[in-house]
Amino acid sequence: MIMKNRIVYLFFLCTALLISCDREIEQSQSDFEFDYQPLGIGDFWVYQVDQTIYFGENDAETSSFFYKDQIISFYIDEEDEQVFIVERTSSSDQSNWNSLTNFSLKIKDLSLVRNFDNQVTIPLIFPPDLGKVWDGNVYNSKGKDDYVFVELSGFDPLIPNVESPIMILNNEDDDEITFRDNRYEIYGKGIGLVEKYVEVLTYCSRNDCLGEKIIDSGEKTLLKLISYEVG
């Protein structure tokens, strides 16, 4: 009987410890707000994309289409960290999807690490605190690029109930002579990336057009989330 009671005691002790550990893990994840980027096999996000590509003076092409980003697999890398593979497909009608590329996401040192077209950046850090600054290019050789959490105003999402949206200002620069570089991303709690804007332009720098802000090359691209499913 004594042995039986000890076994029962040990069973309940182990169960209590496991429950306690699970709660600590959940609490830790909640504290750091990792849910600003859900990462689960099958999770997907569909974006409406409006894009203008500039090829030269008075030469531009504007188009509207859709991206679908879906997590299709994961693996354990050499640092014993989970790396999630995201497949990006595109469509003009949301019926027929064409594969474009794969990229990866992982959580490392309280940072979201994104490898897109062999360029590794840190689009998001945890927890997201207003005014916090970090180098988005710390894992690549492109030079320092400070990202910052900024106050969000005038946000008009295409999906309802975006909880506690946060905005990361990647860059906001325009010398009005040679270039413009405006980029930002907006994430929703429990959703992930909700909106992304890229406006990277070069202006004509010839003597006859210098300072006139005539676009010589570049792009303007706006992604807005229209549907998603996360586990």
User: Can you identify the CATH class of the largest domain?
Assistant: Mainly Beta
- Overall structural class, as computed from helix and strand content, comes to mainly beta
The major sheet is characterized as:
12 strands, antiparallel
Beta fraction of the residues? over 45%
Shape: globular
Label this structure with key terms:
YmcC-like fold, 1 helix, mainly beta, 231 residues, 2 domains, 12-stranded antiparallel β-sheet
Describe this structure as you would to a colleague:
The chain is mainly β and 231 residues long. The chain has 2 domains: 1-32; 33-229, YmcC-like fold (Beta Barrel). It has one helix at 2-32; strands at residues 44-56, 59-76, 82-91, 98-108, 111-116, 119-125, 133-135, 146-150, 166-174, 179-188, 192-203, 215-229. It has a 12-stranded antiparallel β-sheet, with no helix packed on it. β1 and β2 form a beta hairpin. The radius of gyration is 22 Å and the shape is globular. 14% of the residues are buried.
